[in-house]
Amino acid sequence: MYTRLPIVLVAMTLAACENNDSNESTSKQDTAVYANLSPVLSGEIPLEVPSPPADIIHDPVLTRPFFDTFSWQSFIALSWPATPVNRGVPIEPNNPDTFRQTNTNASDSAPVVWETYREGFELFPHDDSVPPEWNSTDPVQTPAGEVSGERVLAMVTKGGIVGQQNQAFSGPLIDQNKNYVRYEVRINQIQYDQVRNNRWYDKATVDSAIADTVAAQINAGISPQQGIEFDTNAMEIKVSWRILTDQDDHDRYYVRKALISDEDGYNYTTATVGMVGFHIMQKTAIFPQWIWSTFEHVDNVSGLHPSFNNGTNEPPSLIVNAQPTGYNYEPAGIEAPFPIRETREPVQVTRAVPIPTTPNDPAGYSTQELNKKYRALLKGTVWENYRLVVTQWPLDPSLRSPYDPDFNPGNYENSLAGDPFPQRAANVTMETYFQTESSCMECHYHAAAYGVDYSWILYDRVINTQ
Length: 466
What we know:
With 466 residues, this protein is of the alpha+beta class. It contains nine helices and 13 strands. Strands 1, 4, 5, 6, 7, 8, 9, 12 and 13 form a nine-stranded mixed beta sheet that branches. A hairpin with a 2-residue loop joins strand 2 (141-142) and strand 3 (145-146). It starts with 6 loop residues before the first helix and ends with a helix.
């Protein structure tokens, strides 16, 4: 079902696509071109985007359903029940009954595929030891000590090293119960093994690998254009969680038990957490700048009891340049010890950039309409309470991971990252304070400029260390 985009169509894309969000309000298309995009329950992670017909390849809005389908099918496959022994391997991936019968919100239910991926701190052990092999059961030194088999949510951030307490380039997010949102990062086997086998968890080794790659390009008579790169189908998962209380409807969330860092920042308490945000970034053969998919819980900023606003018709939002920012204030960055819960003020969050309502086709293949189709397919499982917010991809996939040690963020242009479409992509639980200017690819291009592909992991946890 999932095939590579033919090179001839890539060439057409490069020649004709315009990164023009004005297309959002005008693009229409006969639904016949989407006939093969029916939602399916499958545990097979797609390796490439379904191929759009040649007659619509010129219009990124019209091709959006193919990318959104890729995002949704990835989400389902990653949420498939996993085998207890081999990490990342689904149980009976072609049996929808297996998915329906085992996917519950119970905190003691079997793990799903993405939960068996290695966590970020496992690839960069705190005691500077060699990371364990992929399927090893050996304990790893975590921020809470050697805790085998328990989820540890030490971070109150989506970026940076374990122990930082804020969202990337901003402050923490505080929910309506005055609790901090917590985050974790997972890595699939392709990316994990590549880092482990190449010793890229060691700063000197990474520096040397980048230097060797650049030297090889110079010796070949070309200007250095890329540093080290992850292999095709490398994948990172970023997840946001909020602490659930007795007043929350636990049945609406994918629920887990986790060790949560206490207010002192060092001790840990077991808490029940519900998943509220989910990022997927996957590098494919056709799209070496990765494809970026982000999902949220449907109750984050709407519904009877929103997690991140007061539920009124018009939650307060700061206005900048006559445009709502999607939040009423940004808490100051924090360091341990954290402010005690009673003194925290909840952040009032709204969605500043709507979930796309295009393309305007009669059968419903906009992101919002496709969400309805998939949520109907997932009826009866906890995953029916989640929705795709946006998929972002490069209109020019010919560019590989860039390398520019003299890169100045003030000189960034979309063309450097392959012309991301759409230009804005934000998850309200992970880019709360940058919604109107957030772009996954723009942000991660900054990491790529350091020579470590579009991933912040090697930069944050290796290069940017002493």
